[in-house]
Amino acid sequence: MLKRVQTFRVDIKPLSVNDAWQGRRFKSKDYKQYEKDMQILLPRDSKIWDEPIRVSYHFKLRNAGRTDIDNLIKPLQDILVRSGIITNDNLIVEMNARKTRDTFDSVEVSIESAGVGE
């Protein structure tokens, strides 16, 4: 069975979960702006993933040493669901994430089918 793979890059500084919520229930102003920007920047012709998937995130950051990598993942995944690229983030059965220093902020996302029974 052929596995499908989708990869895209979004040129935006990823938002840390620490900056995403005001208190415990309300989205911060930064999160709301990040969400709007991502809706504009995400590919419009993206496949809708509604099967078990593997995802890889490569965060390229000017200040890579100042951010915990796990804080960058949740806001991004939630936006991938809200944008309809992933129907539910509970479909993610495997994840890889890395961060590197770069001259400008961006994130590369790769999604592939996990296949049945893997």
Approximate strand percentage: 25-35%
The Cα radius of gyration reads: 14 Å
Q: Total number of helical segments?
A: 2
Order of helices and strands: EEEHEHEE
| Biggest beta-sheet profile | 4 strands, mixed
The CATH architecture term is: 2-Layer Sandwich
Which ranges are low-confidence, i.e. pLDDT below 50, for 5 or more consecutive residues?
none
CATH topology: the name is 60s Ribosomal Protein L30, Chain: A
Keywords:
two-stranded antiparallel ribbon; 118 residues; four-stranded mixed beta sheet
Summarize the structure.
With 118 residues, the protein is α+β, with helices and mostly antiparallel strands. The chain is 23% helix and 31% strand.
Write the layout of secondary structure elements.
Blueprint lengths: L4 E6 L10 E2 L3 E2 L1 H13 L11 E9 L7 H14 L9 E10 L4 E8 L5
Parallel strand pairs: 4-5
Antiparallel strand pairs: 1-6, 2-3, 4-6
Describe the structure.
With 118 residues, this protein is of the alpha+beta class. The chain has a single domain (5-113), classed as 60s Ribosomal Protein L30, Chain: A. 23% of the residues lie in helices and 31% in strands. The chain starts with a strand and ends in a 5-residue tail after the last strand.
